[in-house]
Structure formats: C-alpha cells, structure tokens
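Progress against Task 2.4 (sequence-to-structure conversion) is shown through the following example record, which the project officer requested during the mid-term review.
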Amino acid sequence: MANENSLPGEPIIRAAQIVIPCPDLASMLNLLTTTLGFSIDLVVPADSPTTAVVSGHGVTLRLEQDAGRVRSPPLTLRLYCEGQGAASVDRWENDALQIEFAGVDPAVEIPDAVQQFVLTRLDSTDSWHVGRAGMLYRDLIPGRVGGRFIASHIRIPDGGDVPDYVHFHRIRFQMIYCRSGTARLVYEDQGEPFEFCAGDCVLQPPQIRHRVLATSAGFEVVELGCPAVHETWADHRMQLPTGRTLPERLYGSQQFVHHVAAAASWSPWAPASQPTGFDVRDTGIARATHGLAGARVMRCARAHATTPSLTHDGEFLFYFVLHGRAALASRTLGQHDLHEGDCCVIPAGPDFVWSGDRGLELLEVSLPSQVSDGLTGG
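Structure tokens generated for the chain above:
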C-alpha cells in the first residue's frame, strides 16, 4: 500500500506555478507586466484570454479568470525592491491578490540589550537539540538577554561529510571558536577550503557566503551572534571556492578572520598594569570589526592566577570555560565555580574576579572590543 504522503506515479516535476483565481484578468495582467516588470509566458485563448502565466523576480504566477475560486483573504505577493521609487505603486490589491513592497536588504533589527547575569552549566545531554544541517545545538544563553545575543555550543558526534549548502547570515556580528576536532570550511573570496582546528576562530562578517564541507568525529564549536534571531539564507547560485583570495575585502564593513591558534602568540594580561598570572591570545576580531567586537583566550600561566577586581560598561561580556576550572567571585553576582563547558554573561556594572590554576583556558567575547581592552579595577 502506497504511503499517504507519496506522490502517485512518482512524477518528474519540471516547473511550479502559483495559481491565482482572478475575476479581472485584464487589469491584473496589465499591472503585473506594465508596472511591475513581469513577463507574459502564456495566454489562452488568444482572442479572449481567461488564463495567463507570467514570470519574473523569481516566481511564476498562473492567473485564472474564475471568480468562483477567489480566495478570502486574498493571496499576498511581496516584492522586494531596491532604492526609492523602485515601484510606481506602494500597494495594490483586489479580491484575489494584494501586493506588498519591501526593501530587498532591510536593516538588521537589533533588540535592546538587557543587562543580566547568566550562568549556564554543561550538566546534561538532555539540553541538546537538532538544528540546521543535522548539527546538535546547546543554548548557552537561555532568554538571549532580551533577544540581542545568541551563543550556541554546537557539536557533530560522528564526523564525515556535512549535508550543508552555500549560505549566509543577515547579522550584525557572528564568530565561531573551535573547541575540539577539525572541520573543512570554505568562504567566499577567501581561497581554497581550509582546516579549522581546535583553538582556531573565525569571524563571519555579515552576508559572507560559506559552507561546512566535512568534520572529524567529536567536532565542537562555540558560536556567538547578534541579534539572537537572524536569517540564514541559502545561495544556490554561488559555487565555492570562488577562485579568488581577497583578504582585505569588506563584508558589511567587516573583514573575514581565520585565527590559527598554532601560529598565535601569547602575551601577559594586565588590564590594571599589574601582573595577574594570566596570558591572553587575541584573535584579531577587534581590528577586523573596527572595534565593534573583540574575542580572546585567557589562560593561567602559573600554578595559581587571579585577576584584580574588574568591571565593565559595555553591552555584552561573555566567558566560556574551554579547559580546566575557573572561580568567579563578585560582591553582587556571588561565588561560582565553573567547569569545562560552563559559561556566563557578566552584566555591566558589578565587580568580578577570575581565578584558576594552570590548565585553565577561558574564551572571552565582548561588545564593543574596548570592553575587554579596558576592563577596569572595581
């Protein structure tokens, strides 16, 4: 017995049309072709058309003069336009169809920041869920601090080829830090596919096309983005790699960054001009975003290290324990032991101190970058 969801006869689909019942075929056909730039593909019969097919702007519409099948409410056709006056009408509608106009590349909406302390622990596999391309996701900032930021712990347990596709994100900021394993990645105008290894970091500027090709077993990353809810678009026309390497190219005023941990240098971290026992490894994201965001890794360089009392006045400050164990102390936020896989968001205002032993590594991400560069004593 055939599955109720199967298509009878297994047809080979050659084309698709959106059928619009249309009592006034002539006026609608004139609007679509003369005013909105659609092309006529079919009319029938020629002497007194009752059916027409028009195409343009990525869609094909079949207009059928049948007042008895008019939808209620009418079908909506949204046209995305560039510039002022791209269409000579703002809105049009009749009983069958309403046409709306929108900008083809509207500004990314950024919700207001909510300053709050968030502590998330890696204590259960129940918090993982399947996301895009079959990858497993763990939400690191439940509540998303008002919807302004998202942080995800992502893993691919089995490895191998990834069923990904060329895509891009409409975002303000997005970075990925490789926690373990390796992946093969490719980015628009950034050369051939490359190996993304543990400790490496990439900045994905707005709308850069990219694709995950394959991963090792146990591949894990930490990904951060702003805003929390953002669009991921497939690009079915672009082939990657593009055959070009343009390291200075700007995407939404940002440059692509591939920070390679094995080639990076460490330097002492002393925001209060005093030894702390922590070293830092900068990823280059602050330079590539012109100060919009910063990301670096802190590590204990001796048996026991403690920062001075710190505070910040930025919009976002995030820490993820990459290795080891960290102690967070704050007169306002309390005392917290964080283990590998735990993370937190520190709100602006309260003082805090980090301490740990050799082997501790913390990922720190801040917006703006001056938050981390200018952490001040509390």
